[in-house]
Design brief:
mainly alpha; 4 helices; flat; disordered C terminus
Length: 70
């Protein structure tokens, strides 16, 4: 349910970055890592200096490598 609400919110208010960040978190914790990273990359297009989102992407990429590697 949270996923739908956040998707609706980001569709209606695409410049509201906290909703996009939260959507990425919900996707990540639902094991939809690729979609989460895509969402966070959209945030970086609008806010390239967002350190929080850069860290989320780094962690997600490391987690993905760990899962693929072993």
């Amino acid at each position: 349910k949270a996923l739908k609400i956040l998707r609706d919110l980001t569709a209606e208010y695409p410049s509201f970055l906290p909703a996009q960040i939260k959507l990425g978190m919900v996707l990540y914790h639902s094991n939809r890592v690729v979609e989460a990273v895509e969402e966070w990359e959209r945030v970086l297009m609008r806010d390239p200096n967002n350190k929080e989102v850069r860290e989320y992407i780094r962690v997600a990429n490391e987690a993905g490598q760990t899962e693929l590697g072993g």
